[in-house]
Amino acid sequence: MSALRIAQAVYLAIRAHGEETYPDECCGALLGVPTPDGWRVTSSIRAGNTRTDSAHNRYQIAPLELVKIEREARRQGLEIAGFYHSHPDHPAQWSQTDFAEAHWLGCSYVITSVVQGNATATNSFLLAGAGEEDKRFDLETIEVAE
Amino acid sequence: MTIFIPTPLRPYAGGNGTLEVNATTVGGALEELTTAHPELRKHLFNAEGNLRAFVNVYLNDDDVRYLPAKEATEVSTADTLTIVPSIAGGALAVLAEAPAAYER
To answer: Which residues of A121-146 are buried (b: 16+ CB within 10 A; e: fewer)?
Structure first.
C-alpha cells in the first residue's frame, strides 16, 4: 500500500476548507514531490467549485484554474500530487462519479467527509493503472507530518 | 514552443514535465509531441483521432477547443501549450462500503 505523506498544516487546511464550504463540496490541488512509495505533499491550493448547479454533491475545477495551478506548482518547484474534495454528509469514500471523472493516473485523490459542518474522516485513494481501461482507486495510508 | 506535460502523462513523455517543439500550429505541436513519444497518443486522442473529452489543451490561457481555428491555430516560439486532464467528481452515488476512518 502506498502512503500519502502530508504536512500537518496542509492536512488541517483541506479539512477546514471542507467545513467552510459546507453544505457544498470544496475542492483543490495538492502539491508535492514523488517518492518511491507515494507522494509527499507540502502545500495545497484552493480551487473554486464550478458545479454551482449541484455543489452539494458534485465538484469540478475549471480547466484554466488547473493550468494556473500547474504554473504555480512549477514556480514552487513542485508537482501536482493530487486533488482533494469534500463529501458533505457522505462517507470519505470514492463515488462512482469520482471514479468516472478521475483521469490523473498516479495521483492521489483525498476525500474528507464533512458531517453537519464538521470534518470527520479523511481518506486518500491513489488512481492506479496504466490507462483509462484498467484504472482503479487504491486506498492509501495517510501519514501526517508534524 | 514549450509544451507542459501533466504529472500522469510524464511517464509516457520520457519523464519530462516540459518539452520543446518547433511546430507552427497547435495540431503540429501535438503531432510532433506524439511522434517523439508515441505512447502519449492513446492517452491524448480517441480512436477517431480527436482529443479525448477529458483532455484539455490550453494555448497560453485559451482552451484550444474554443479558438476559432482550433488545432490549426498558429503558434510562435514564445507560446506555451499546457495539457491538463479534467478534474471533477463528487459524493453523488457514493459506494455503500466506506473504508475505516483514518485516525491520527
So the answer is: bbbbbbbeeeeeeeeebebbebebee
Size of interface A-B (CB pairs under 8 A): 137
B2-85 folds as Ubiquitin-like (UB roll) (3.10.20)
- Which residues constitute the domain of residue A92? 3-145
Overall number of domains in chain A: 1
Read off the pLDDT of residues B14-32 as tens digits, 9 standing for 90 and up.
Answer: 999 999 999 999 999 999 9
Residues A84-116 have pLDDT tens digits of: 999 999 999 999 999 999 999 999 999 999 999
Q: What's the CATH number where A94 sits?
A: 3.40.140.10
* pTM score of the predicted model: 0.94
The reply to whether residue B92 touches residue A57, judged by beta carbons under 8 angstroms, is yes
